[in-house]
Design brief:
The structure holds 2 protein chains of 2 kinds.
Chain A lengths: L1 E2 L2 H12 L11 E6 L2 H6 L1 H15 L4 E6 L11 E5 L5 E3 L4 H14 L7 E4 L1
Helix pairs in contact in A: 3-4
Chain B lengths: L3 H14 L4 E9 L4 E8 L6 H4 L18 H10 L4 E7 L3 E9 L11 H11 L4 E8 L2 E6 H8 L7 H24 L1
Parallel strand pairs in B: 1-5
Antiparallel strand pairs in B: 1-2, 2-4, 3-4, 5-6
Classes of the chains: A alpha+beta, B alpha+beta.
């Protein structure tokens, strides 16, 4: 069986080591991608992998990504909920990779809620 | 679903919703036998027998947000329309195993798609759950076990975004490798 080699694992660890000092403030921002059957069929996976890429690029360790199930709004999937610290969570609807990038750069990094894509405030 | 990898992601999410802490995913591309086989196994709470008999009926669901449940019925329909097979076994308290087979060269078979992203998204969204992902292409295979990775990482969270991207890249390369090995032999 071909497994992950020790070398691969070492490389993974090295890659992560640079961010350790920043990790105390983990979870300040929580982004939930709704991953029910409806969300997945509508493109939630691409939205989530784009989000992970953006977080890596911005080198932020304080943003927590969570997958959750469908919230019953299947027709507006993929839905993404962004919660910044104590602020009210914002649900975004009909997300795509590009909209996710915009929400990340504007809302998550700069605090400007992207009302064009918003479905509701919780 | 445009990709079989999306079905896999969906069924794995079911296992997580059932309270599993370990999910095993097996993709077996038996190309020489013209077969694509999937197996998704969880150690969640299992499916009660009164629900089990209707489990692939789209109008039967345990969810409370809506009255339809599509996941298993979609996979079953996708497999059967490709001269394939579908099976689900569940034992309350022990877990559930979903298996599906597709005729590999069937014209209606969706592409396998981006398995690396499906697995990466599962790990990223559920840091506390262990995933064992095995991918076989004819006689070559590749295994990724997140419990081993977590052990090696020690106190660094596996969900760190740079680790996630690295893992996705690693899976992509490993799949290319085993595919190439098969072609050369």
């Amino acid at each position: 069986m071909a497994k992950l080699s020790i070398q691969d694992l070492k490389k993974i660890k090295e890659n992560a080591a640079k961010g350790i000092s920043l990790r105390q403030e983990q979870g300040r921002i929580k982004v939930t991608v709704h991953m029910g059957t409806c969300g997945i069929a509508a493109g939630a996976r691409e939205v989530m992998s784009t989000l992970v890429e953006e977080i890596a690029q911005a080198d932020r360790q304080d943003i927590q990504v969570v997958a959750s199930s469908c919230m019953g709004m299947c027709s507006s999937e993929p839905n993404v909920t962004v919660q910044v610290e104590a602020e009210e969570p914002i649900i975004y609807q009909k997300m795509t990779a590009n909209k996710m990038r915009q929400v990340f750069k504007r809302h998550i990094l700069l605090g400007e809620v992207q009302t064009d894509f918003a479905l509701a405030k919780m | 679903m445009r990709e079989i990898a999306l079905h896999i992601l969906d069924i794995a999410e079911n296992g997580i919703a059932a309270g599993a802490d370990t999910i095993s995913i097996l993709v077996n591309e038996a190309r020489k036998d013209n077969l694509l086989k999937l197996e998704i196994k969880d150690n969640g709470r299992g499916i009660p027998s009164n629900i089990f008999k209707n489990v692939t009926d789209p109008f039967s669901t345990t969810r409370t947000t809506r009255r339809v449940g599509m996941g298993l019925s979609l996979l079953k329909a996708a497999a059967l329309r490709c001269d394939g097979s579908f099976d689900i076994e569940s034992e309350p308290g022990k877990g559930t195993k979903v298996s599906a087979g597709f005729r590999f060269d069937h014209i209606d078979r969706a592409p396998l798609g981006n398995m690396a992203d499906s697995v990466m998204v599962l790990i990223a969204g559920h840091p506390d759950i262990d995933f064992i992902y095995t991918h076989i292409i004819d006689e070559n295979d590749f295994v990724l076990d997140t419990s081993e990775i977590k052990k090696e990482l020690e106190d660094i969270p596996i969900t760190d975004s740079s680790i996630m991207l690295h893992l996705s890249e690693l899976i992509k390369n490993a799949l290319k490798d085993i595919e190439l090995k098969g072609k050369m032999s």
